[in-house]
Amino acid sequence: MAHGDDRAISRLYDVHSPRLFGLALALVGERADAEEVVLDAFAQAWRNACTFDGSRGSVQTWLSTITRSRALDCIRRRTRRRMANERAGTESSFSVADGEATHSRDASVLDTMLHEELQAQLNGALQLLPPEQREVIELSFLSGASHARVAEQLGLPLGTVKTRARSALRKMRTVLIGATTR
């Protein structure tokens, strides 16, 4: 791939895309966004193939790191977009003619209620996790620490941290999917 062989990226995609899609979906929560994240990750891998160093980790680890980074970028863009829409909704929520609140204010209230409900569901799912899994999730996803940093902070092997995170995300997904189908 580092030499521009497009068959290499095709083989790499075939082998690693299912796992990376699962990671992206767990992070961003929406299929379309997860698909975009994976495509962005492979595009970055193609552009930066010459920077891969096998002595620093496996190809899977390298691609997972790129995917996680692209997923976090997606979440940041989504958050910025939502905040801009909220600001725009607040600024335009009053009619210029008579100063009365319009429909956008109601939409803002609805958005706030939905956000609070989602936050409550996430907190509930977190509380159902065993303490060691909850700690890993809180440090890595809520505080933004890398798995390596979490492993260092907790004095655990990196593989243990990753296994706890994966198990916790699976449990949370099951709980949250159950909550949305009720």
Automatic annotation (TrEMBL):
<dbReference type="InterPro" id="IPR013325">
    <property type="entry name" value="RNA_pol_sigma_r2"/>
</dbReference>
<dbReference type="InterPro" id="IPR036388">
    <property type="entry name" value="WH-like_DNA-bd_sf"/>
</dbReference>
<dbReference type="InterPro" id="IPR013249">
    <property type="entry name" value="RNA_pol_sigma70_r4_t2"/>
</dbReference>
<comment type="similarity">
    <text>Belongs to the sigma-70 factor family. ECF subfamily.</text>
</comment>
<dbReference type="GO" id="GO:0006352">
    <property type="term" value="P:DNA-templated transcription initiation"/>
</dbReference>
<dbReference type="Pfam" id="PF04542">
    <property type="entry name" value="Sigma70_r2"/>
</dbReference>
<dbReference type="InterPro" id="IPR013324">
    <property type="entry name" value="RNA_pol_sigma_r3/r4-like"/>
</dbReference>
<feature type="domain" description="RNA polymerase sigma factor 70 region 4 type 2">
    <location>
        <begin position="122"/>
        <end position="172"/>
    </location>
</feature>
<feature type="domain" description="RNA polymerase sigma-70 region 2">
    <location>
        <begin position="12"/>
        <end position="81"/>
    </location>
</feature>
<dbReference type="GO" id="GO:0003677">
    <property type="term" value="F:DNA binding"/>
</dbReference>
<dbReference type="GO" id="GO:0016987">
    <property type="term" value="F:sigma factor activity"/>
</dbReference>
<dbReference type="InterPro" id="IPR007627">
    <property type="entry name" value="RNA_pol_sigma70_r2"/>
</dbReference>
<protein>
    <submittedName>
        <fullName>Sigma-70 family RNA polymerase sigma factor</fullName>
    </submittedName>
</protein>
<keyword id="KW-0731">Sigma factor</keyword>
<dbReference type="InterPro" id="IPR014284">
    <property type="entry name" value="RNA_pol_sigma-70_dom"/>
</dbReference>
<dbReference type="Pfam" id="PF08281">
    <property type="entry name" value="Sigma70_r4_2"/>
</dbReference>
<keyword id="KW-0804">Transcription</keyword>
<keyword id="KW-0805">Transcription regulation</keyword>
<dbReference type="InterPro" id="IPR039425">
    <property type="entry name" value="RNA_pol_sigma-70-like"/>
</dbReference>
